[in-house]
Design a protein that fits this description.
The structure holds two protein chains of two kinds. Chain A is 85% helix and 0% strand. By secondary structure, chain A is an all-alpha fold. Chain A has one domain: ABC transporter involved in vitamin B12 uptake, BtuC. In chain A, helix 4 crosses helix 10. The longest helix of chain A has 42 residues. The radius of gyration of chain A is 20 Å and the shape is globular. Chain B is an alpha/beta fold. Chain B contains eight helices and twelve strands. In chain B, strand 1 and strand 2 form a beta hairpin. The longest helix of chain B has 16 residues. The N and C termini of chain B lie far apart (41 Å). Classes of the chains: A mainly alpha, B alpha/beta. Chains A and B meet through helix 8, helix 9, helix 10 and helix 11 of A and helix 2 of B.
């Protein structure tokens, strides 16, 4: 804890911690619905499309974040339509999205002969480099995503549970799904700063699958997932700073460790219960 | 008196193959209509048309006096229990949370949720995850979800398929109670002809076309009609699980 207080006096560290906590909360909330809808890799695919969007922005000389938003949102809506209107399996449509984004990005980079921006930070993230503007964008994203999910919370649970029942309840399922996809897109774009394109699905998936082993009830599961995610990113940033490691990789390794510990603890509890039942 | 459901010359084609062909019938208030028909007969498609999930059909469906394609608000008066689907054990929503989803668009009333859970005899499980319950219990949760908004009409699509016979019997008692005590109109599709004979006051037999619609006694009490239904259904290459009067208590598996 002392180490945390030592480094928190640095401005870059304050920005890093605020951004990391804000990102981990929205990734956990949006991620739970994605995981339960079996769209875990959707975040990964969107991140790759964002890579294409950033490359496009750099190529045509527009602020890359805006092109990333436009390309990611349009692609997400397109893939959702593809999934609804054709019989293509969801994982295949996600694969189409993922590879298209990456291919466009690679072509644009090759045409331009490489960009001056640090490609490494797009691919792997670098939370220690976030600017004040980045922090504002991340906090605005939180201010949009959290209230909208709160308003549509019950409707999203019903759609996740059973889309047909949701339709019979009079919900406009297509509209709500589109809205959710847009929220997921802006969440992913905001999160690239933290872990980069390649590790984004870790933030979406790992805290949630860990929380699903522990939580009873939707709200409790969301809170547990947020807690796991916040702990991992804060601990990851502090550890990586002192051990001179890559922050994104450190955070993900901490999340995976918590996931493994939870599995082991659950199995030990199960075995112990079995032994006690046999003895009695 | 205006019927609760009026289906008029309903036809639906899936990839130019008729799933439903010129079907007409009505359901009156307080009716318990059992819909029977082999697999692939169009029962689920019929329900999806009635519930506004499928809209590109020919003909007309009126729910509570208005066209379902024009007025989806009438669905607020309908409770729907789909075919059993197993919920993953990790799905985090508790019984209480799932039942409360039935009140979307209405003010959450904890007492209504408690009453619905109590009615399906799951009060001991309110804080359990739905995925941790048995399949029969999960179906009762879905019924509670359908009941919590106090519906005038309950539509059940083969709700007991794959559920053990003891649980099925409890489920049938529950349906009977809903129809008799709460005066809820029920439309229910099933392969269990014994149960349909026992519970429903009206019967509709379909296999893409409507073979019979009328009083339950007029169908089950008429051996000739039953026989011709079996022929009609067998011609359609289906599986039917039913008992004829000649077979006494033996179940006959026709395929």
């Amino acid at each position: 804890m002392g180490m945390l207080f030592d480094i928190i006096q640095y401005g870059f560290m304050q920005r890093a911690l605020i951004s990391a906590i804000a990102i981990s909360v929205i990734c956990s909330i949006v991620g739970l619905f994605l995981v339960l809808k079996r769209h875990s890799l959707f975040g990964d695919a969107l991140a790759h499309v964002t890579f294409g969007g950033i490359s496009l922005g750099l190529f045509i000389g527009v602020y890359p974040l805006w092109t990333a938003y436009i390309v990611a949102i349009l692609s997400a809506i397109g893939v959702n339509k593809l999934r609804e209107s054709t019989k293509i399996p969801p994982d295949s449509s996600i694969a189409v999205l993922l590879t298209s984004g990456l291919a466009i990005g690679i072509i644009l980079i090759s045409i331009s002969g490489g960009f001056t921006v640090n490609l490494y930070s797009i691919l792997f993230g670098n939370i220690l480099l976030v600017s004040n503007d980045d922090v504002i964008i991340i906090l605005i994203t939180d201010a949009i995503v959290i209230p909208v999910i709160y308003i549509f919370y019950k409707k999203l649970i019903l759609i996740t549970f059973d889309e047909k029942q949701a339709k019979v309840s009079g919900l406009n399922v297509t509209w709500i799904n589109t809205l959710f996809i847009i929220l997921a897109s802006i969440t992913i774009i905001a999160s690239i700063r933290l872990v980069g394109v390649l590790l984004i699905s870790s933030l979406i998936v790992i805290p949630n699958i860990t929380a699903l082993m522990l939580g009873k009830g939707f709200k409790k599961t969301i809170f547990i997932s947020c807690a796991i995610s916040i702990f991992s990113v804060v601990f990851g940033i502090v550890t990586s700073y002192y051990l001179n490691l890559a922050p994104s990789g450190t955070m993900v390794i901490i999340m995976i460790s918590m996931f493994l510990v939870t599995i082991i603890a659950k199995n030990m509890k199960f075995t112990l219960n079995k032994v006690l039942v046999t003895k009695n | 008196m205006q019927p609760i459901i009026k289906v008029l010359k309903l036809s639906y084609y899936y990839d130019s193959i008729p799933s439903l062909d010129d079907i007409s019938f009505t359901v009156d208030k307080g009716d318990f209509l059992g819909i029977i028909g082999p697999n692939g007969a169009g029962k689920t498609t019929l329900f999806q048309c009635m519930l506004g999930i499928i809209n590109d059909y020919r003909g007309e469906i009126n729910l509570f006096g208005s066209d379902i394609r024009q007025n989806k608000k009438t669905l607020q008066r309908v409770g729907y229990v789909p075919q059993k689907k197993s919920v993953e054990q990790t799905f985090p929503a508790t019984v209480k949370e799932i039942v409360s989803l039935g009140m979307i668009g209405k003010k959450i009333n904890k007492e209504s949720i408690y009453n619905a859970v109590n009615f399906v005899e799951l009060d001991a499980y309110t804080d359990k995850r739905i995925g941790e319950l048995s399949e029969g219990q999960q179906q009762r949760v879905i019924i509670a979800k359908a009941l919590v908004k106090d519906p005038d009409l309950l539509i059940l699509d083969e709700p007991t398929t794959g559920i053990d016979s003891a649980t099925q019997e409890r489920f049938y008692d529950l349906l009977k109670k809903l129809n008799k005590d709460k005066r809820i109109t029920i439309v229910w599709s099933s392969h269990d002809m014994n149960a349909v004979e026992r519970l429903a006051n009206k019967v509709a037999c379909i296999d893409r076309k409507l073979f019979f619609h009328g009083e339950s006694g007029d169908f089950f009490g008429n051996d000739e009609r039953m026989k011709s239904y079996v022929e009609f259904a067998m011609q359609s290459h289906m599986n039917l699980h039913f008992r004829t009067p000649e077979d006494g208590d033996n179940n006959l598996e026709k395929s």
